[in-house]
Amino acid sequence: MNQNRTIYWRSFRMAAWLGWQIESNWTDPFLFAVYSFVKPLSGAAILVVMYSVITNGAFGSPVFPYIYLGNAFYQYVGAVMTGVSWAVIDDREHYKTLKYMYVAPISIPIYLLGRGVSRFITGSMSVIITILAGMWFLHVDIDVTAVHWPLFFLSLFIGVVMLAMMGLLLAGVTLLMARHVGFMGEAVAGALYLFSGAIFPLDVLPAWLRPIGYAMPLTYWLELLRRALIGSVADAFPTLSGYSSGQLLAILTALTLLFSAAGILVFRWCDYHAREQGMIDATTNY
Amino acid sequence: MKTTPPYDVLARRAPKNSGAHLFWQTVLARAYPRVIGQQREKSWMFFDVVLPIIGVAAYVFVYRAIQAPEEYVGFVVVGGAMTAFWLNILWSMSSQLYWEKETGNLALYIIAPNSLMAILLGMALGGLLATTLRAVVILVLGSWLFHVQYAVVHFGQLVAIFFLSMVALYGMGMMFASLFLLLSREAWHISNLAQEPVYLISGFYFPVKSLNFWVATAASLIPLTLGLDAMRQLVFPSGATLGFLSVRLELGILIGLCVIFLLAARFLLNYMERLAIREGRLTENRR
After folding, report:
1. DSSP string, B50-78
2. For A32, A56, A73, B146, which has the most beta carbons within 10 A of its beta carbon?
3. Which residues in chain B touch residue A42, judged by CB atoms under 8 angstroms apart?
4. How many helices (H) and strands (E) are present in chain A, helices listed first?
């Protein structure tokens, strides 16, 4: 038991360090900083211009922080969830080291989760920069003294765990695919962007698509983060205003447990079949 | 028994190609995998269409949530279709020589007695054709899903604008490809970085006129900015009122950009190829 803990911790720690080196050492720190900030700020600015053109710059409305904060926190999805699953593609196709990881005395799921840590760090930098830009230039009124910090950090923690476990699920599926894996994370992240009410309320979706959004933990996670930072955002759209923060937290926790269990089971199943089918060192040169 | 050296056999059998014939043969040979190969990968076609549609749908629903006029939905659909071209420029033109370097093909391109410019032109023509098919599917599907109405004002100008935008854009892609010759692992990150900022400054999801005049002017260096603006003016009833410059002026600027980018691509390719050879960067593989 104690030996397992040592293996888990070593796998996680070394994977996190390796991930950070891969993410950051391709250039000098200045260009890395520019890279980390320009991309998320541009994504946010597209929404800001769209909103501004239509509303003549009505940034005081609670609708604006709803869209802005939803988009800002959604960056964690691309960072953490896709980051964990991308490690499979990176190690198998690009560096061709996945088979060596499998023969090393490490835990593969923990290793993959560790690879998501660097993306979590860079993702956090992007989220913070986006929110600060909103506060300084776009009247996103976050009063730090009025923020419900315990709710914020608790929601953030549960959400990051949920994203990492969804990433593990995706990593399992990725293990069984060869040529099309590059699109997988992007497609799932894109679909979740549409169905999680990140930048528009679920009520805008056609009625037959809304149940997908209600089944996604991300929907409740983003709502909780918005509420924790600016309580009045809950009034922007009535979709989830009938739920108290406690109820949302309970739903988020339950769905996170469900997705975590699914992530572990799916990964185990895929891992077994990937070994059986010889997919661990399959490369396509795509 | 007397044996003939293999090179003698080859010399007798293979017709010697040179000049314009070799150039166009190279163009066709490089365009072939772009047009035929990409269509063979059915799942890639699926993702190439579905991913932009998801992006388009998200922005359409944002406009609907803030009760924007319906023509903005059309702007998003047209912009979303054009993202296919920008992604093709970034990932299949600019960084293509980097991928070729990674897989070991670049050295073969240099060794072969054909023009690297012909290879780039083949990539551009093949990529343009394959991407146009995807863009049309996105446009048709997006228009059908979100009930977009079009009112084409001048069909001839619309075709001319599209054609010139593409020539200038792929000329720019060829120019970038030569610049990327010197890059290694950073090529992937730079292509990744150049997506959202260009969507922003080129007005893929809103009229570029909404931006500051000088920002829009600077963004006009990217051919899709003016191409998209002119196309919107020509296909939507309210497009002209939201246009950045007049269509005729945008047509003239696009002609200028075509000439500049194609000449610059030729000059830079020669220069970068020499530089890369001198610095030994053509076969390096820094993972």
Report:
1. HHHHHHHHHHHHHHHHTT--THHHHHHHH
2. A73
3. 196-197, 199-200
4. 11, 0
DSSP for residue A146: T
Q: Is the dihedral of CA B211, B217, B223, B228 positive or negative?
A: positive
- Average pLDDT value over all residues in chain A: 89
| Residue B255 confidence (pLDDT) above 90 | yes
- The residue of B206, B208, B286 whose CB has the most chain A CBs within 10 angstroms, and thus the best one to mutate to test that interface, is B206
Residue from B126, B134, B131, B122 nearest B34 by CA:
B126
Question: Which amino acid is located at B22 in the chain?
Answer: L
A37 pLDDT above the threshold of 70: yes
A244 exposed, middle or buried (CB, 10 Å; 0-12, 13-18, 19+)? Answer: exposed
| CB-based contact B206 A53, cutoff 8 Å | yes
| Token representation of residue B66 | 């803030």
Q: Which of B54, B63, B90 to mutate to test the interface with A (most CBs of A within 10 A)?
A: B54
Place of tokens 């600027």: B253
Q: Which residue of B54, B63, B193 is in closest CB contact with A50?
A: B63
B153-178 average pLDDT score: 91
| 8 Å CB contact of B44 and A183 | yes
Alpha-helical segments (H) within A25-81: 29-55, 63-76
Q: What are the chain A neighbours of B67 within 8 Å (beta carbons)? A: 54
**Domain coordinates in residue numbering, chain A:** 2-276
In this predicted structure, which of A8-17, A18-27, A125-134 has the lowest mean pLDDT?
A18-27
Distances (CA, A) of A282 to A167, A235, A264, B2, B100: 20, 51, 23, 45, 20
Question: Do residues B52 and B83 make contact, with C-beta atoms less than 8 angstroms apart?
Answer: yes
- Contact, B134 vs B48, CB < 8 A? yes
Residue A180: predicted pLDDT? 58
User: How is chain B split into domains, by residue range?
Assistant: 22-31+41-278
pLDDT tops 90 at residue B96: no
A58 and chain B in contact, CB less than 8 A: no
pLDDT digits (tens, 9 = 90+) for A165-196: 999 999 999 998 876 556 777 788 888 898 99
Q: How far apart are CA A214 and CA A222, in angstroms?
A: 12
Confidence of residue A59 (pLDDT cuts 50, 70, 90): confident
